[in-house]
Amino acid sequence: MAFACRCARAALLLTLSTAGTSMAAPAGPARAYIEATHVVAPEQVGEFSLERASFDPKAKYSGAGFTYESDDQPRPVISVYVYPAGQMTQDAALRDGMAAFREDLRLAQEAGTYGDLEIVDADAFPLSGTGEVAEDAKGTPADAELLAIIAKASRIDGQRLGLRMRLPGQDVDIQSAGFLFYKQLYYFKVRISVAADAMPPDAFKAFADRAARILVPAIQAVNIGACANATITLPSDGSPEEAGGILVREATLHQGYNCHASRTDAKLEALSRGARVIEIGYSAAEWKSE
Fold it and tell me: I need a surface site. Which of 47, 121, 216, 227 has the fewest CB within 10 A?
């Protein structure tokens, strides 16, 4: 039904776009692009239980932190950090985010937080979607093209680092995995660590991958503010097919920002059941649409 509604709106906008019209939601009182983000972390997701949550309003750009534990032994430490990124492409977000991630590791080693830090491997780690459309879902060529656009625009890429290190004063090797994703205008960083002799490397990697694939989709950054109002400009000299592709792509990208005009529109009350919610407030000067 959601797809049908999106297509109905697309038909209306495409009709008007041939005159070069830029369509936007009705203007309202000026408000911040994001007035508040509610980071919603479920208390229980599959085998993973939320042990604690943290947020320092004086350091809100560091975002919210969540610690999960697994029901399975030996219970690796699982930390998820959700902090603001801004409106970017997936490629730019991961490039900048991973550069900062690696720099933080370097600084931590220099500060003595870690010893003998080694990046064992680094690879892409897409969280969802491949950009491909299943054969039985393609329909007509036009349908297949639109579905491919939606799949690509809704894809969440990621990066994974395999790490080994020692903690100060401990004669124990630690194996760790770090993941970074860009979703809902935020970075989602996952760190999972356990003693190297507690789990075989292959078992630890499988565990860490599973934890990232389960926890990151489950945790939501729900944004409230003017970001709910999307403006999509369609070219006046393009074909209906080109305009349709632009509209579907931009609408899908905007949907992925998880922006809402109000808490009611976001259904926050329902989302908050069985979850820990951290609210991060912003002024109009702190968030911009570009």
Answer: 121
